[in-house]
């Protein structure tokens, strides 16, 4: 399969969809002065090429009562236990992200909790997983940067 090439119109469509995935194609078309059918076809091609992988919804966890964020570095007794430990971590709904990493930790996880007491309970659940040697926790005081567009714009400049 030939490599899919994005042009400036594709970049602009992606820019608007990253801002709000629910933006109607007709609104995008009006802003770009193209037809809604053209937007639909281009989005479909980007989906088929694997550039667009579905769409997502961003929740305001603070309004839902889950404003507390902590990052937990997880040390394993043996790296061979990684798959098993990840399966157990996946059973804890308050762990929203987990990465297998190199360096200091074997696994690095993000948790969301109601408060410090709840976070402590989640961390203890992580500590209790068979194969976890110990954990190291960092509390997030503030999410200062969360900008998907900056990376996308840098990638577009390279293309």
From TrEMBL:
GO terms for molecular function: sequence-specific DNA binding. Gene3D superfamilies: 3.30.70.920, Winged helix-like DNA-binding domain superfamily/Winged helix DNA-binding domain (1.10.10.10). One of its GO terms (biological process) is regulation of DNA-templated transcription. Residues 6-67 form the HTH asnC-type domain. It comes from the Bacteria. InterPro entries: ArsR-like_HTH, AsnC-type_HTH_dom, Dimeric_a/b-barrel, Tscrpt_reg_AsnC-like, Tscrpt_reg_AsnC/Lrp_C, WH-like_DNA-bd_sf, WH_DNA-bd_sf. Keywords: DNA-binding, Transcription, Transcription regulation. Pfam families: AsnC_trans_reg (PF01037), HTH_AsnC-type (PF13404). SUPFAM superfamilies: Dimeric alpha+beta barrel, Winged helix' DNA-binding domain. One of its GO terms (cellular component) is cytosol. This is Transcriptional regulator. The lineage of its organism: Bacteria, Pseudomonadati, Bacteroidota, Flavobacteriia, Flavobacteriales.
